[in-house]
Amino acid sequence: MQRIKPLKTGWQLLKSSCEGAAKQVNTSPATSRYYSHRPPQGRGSFGLLFDIDGVLVRGRTLIPAAKQCFRSLVDGEGRYKVPVVFVTNAGNCMRQTKAEHLSELLDVQVSPDQVVLSHSPLRMLTQFHKMRVLVSGQGPIEEDVVTIDMLREAYSLLDVVDHSRRPKDNTPSSKGLPPIDAVILFGEPIRWETNLQLIVDVLQTNGNPDDACSSMRYPHIPVLACNMDLLWMAEAKNPRFGHGMFLVCLESLYKKVTGYDLKYEALIGKPSVVTYNYAELLVSQQAERLGWNTPVKRLYAIGDNPMSDIYGANLYNNYLQASQRTTAQVQTGSGGGDPSAETVAAAASKMTSTERGGTAEEEELPEGCSSILVCTGVYSRDQQEQTVTEQHVFHGHRDFRFDPSLTQPSFVVEDVKEAVELVFQQEGWPLE
């Protein structure tokens, strides 16, 4: 979850993701020049999924092995040898911004169609695109969305924890806002007490926070959350609180106040199967640009967080295995649970092939997805006395059933350079 200064958030991000989907189908000269390698004769095809924080960087500091690793993934002209996609739970920035930042850090060209942010799969939920939504998270907003700051300015009596922010007027007037139709949780906010209070107000009053709670309806208006990471790794020696920790607080407060469970319309970002499915789509498109005439057979997901990166990759692998066993619609809740899959799958089924970024032909899914755990981030061999599967504390989201086997990686390596070397060895590819 690399933190960089965001440019936009809210519906601007959603709309840009949706508009960019169709553009990904066409290979422009600016993009295709970065892909020009066919698989060595007799070799299978594969793709690489990279987490960012704890794998490539620690906060703003690049992990040395990352730059060494990417030198081996491109040729002398900077063109990729295999499909590469970056899958991060960061959300408050544009893909273009993230791609430019990665290009500078890694000293290789990274294009926006190689980046999957936590909110990217939300483009499929078109039923929410025209709603009036409240957005919680960091980053400036442009239009067509209600922010927490806009809400507290309209209803100045709602935010009273910080005495210095209380209204000086004894009878401040409410400006009034149109009713809020849905809540989008993009990432961890700065003032948690303000966001928690106002979001609960909105949910209790059916989107009208100036009303009394006596009119509360349940289920509440839709809530969509991006990024479920409880912890993430920066420069500090120990992991930092992520957006998943904010979700825990919101869920607990709503339950304590109302007696009801907070319900999510969708949970997006790792470890959601939906996110990995979207990443696989981008890998397949890159394989076509490489000139590969066979589908991608395997994916390798490289991450540092057993409860997010590894759990998600293994859950997606279960989905792929189940997909091979039946032609019926696969319920991805098997083997760990992904409560967002049904909602997004229903939305995806209504999309055209162009909106999905594919062709009219039925896509062939990979045979499997292997998970590779590095020791440069959340997980460290030096700090773990137990093996991954012996841990009994579940850091995943409340709505994902805890299956310890899904936190067990296919491979454990020291860093990302060793991870890529392992993949090339597994595939029988030469690593120059």
From TrEMBL:
Keywords per UniProt: Signal
SUPFAM superfamilies, A to Z: HAD-like
Protein origin, superkingdom: Eukaryota
Species, as recorded: Liparis tanakae
Pfam family for this entry, one: Hydrolase_6
Family: Belongs to the HAD-like hydrolase superfamily.
UniProt entry tagged with the keyword rRNA-binding: no
GO-annotated cellular components: mitochondrion
Segments of this protein annotated with the region Disordered: 327-365
InterPro entries: CDP-alcohol_PTase-I, HAD-like_sf, HAD-SF_hydro_IIA, HAD-SF_hydro_IIA_CECR5, HAD_sf
Listed name of the protein: Haloacid dehalogenase-like hydrolase domain-containing 5
